[in-house]
Structure formats: structure tokens, C-alpha cells
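This part of the workshop introduces the protein records we will be handling. An example says more than a description, so a record of this kind follows:
>
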Amino acid sequence: METRYSEYTVEQLRDEVATLKEKAQKAEQMGNVSEYAIYERKVQMAIAYMLNPGDFKAGEVYELDGDPGQTFVISYMNGVFAWGYRINLLGQKYEKQEAIPISVFGKRVQST
């Protein structure tokens, strides 16, 4: 049975991130785009568990790494996931609420 990232130590998480990045690089070199995407997602999740969810609060707006022009407003936190809404370049909030790992946040744009 696999151990959950929430049960890993910081050192184990760092090792896992290094291993996953290596696997992602190999998948990219082999041209396996879907496998590469899976490893990148796993890297994001492992990194999320190295961050402090208490540093993120409802009402704060963050840029999204890898998604230029879009921001994300947090409605509430649930573990290492922020629930909220994407906001496009025109300032329009998407209708569908979603959860994203806190590791995909760039810099904070504004807070309440």
C-alpha cells in the first residue's frame, strides 16, 4: 500500500519531487506527453504538501503559474487545496468553482 503525501516528511517529499521530475523529463524526451503531464501533476501535489496552507486565506487573489492572464480568488481552504474561482483577463469570474493545489499559485495579487 502506498503512503500518502500527507504522511511524508519534508525530506521524503523533496526526494519524491526529484524522482518525479526525473521521470517527467524522461517521459518528455520519449515524446510521451500524457505521461509527462501525469508526473508534472504529481510534482505539484508533492510540492503542495511542503507548503503551509495557513499562509493562504479566503478572499486572496493569486496569479496561476503556467496560466498567464488568469488569476484565482480563494473562497475557502481544505487542506492543501484552495477552493475558489478563476478570473480571466477581463476580470470575469468563471461560474464553476474548482479546487486547485496551493503549489500552482504564483504571487499574490491582492487580499482582503
Remarks:
- The chain is about 30% helix and 25% strand.
- The CA atoms of residues 16 and 97 lie 30 Å apart.
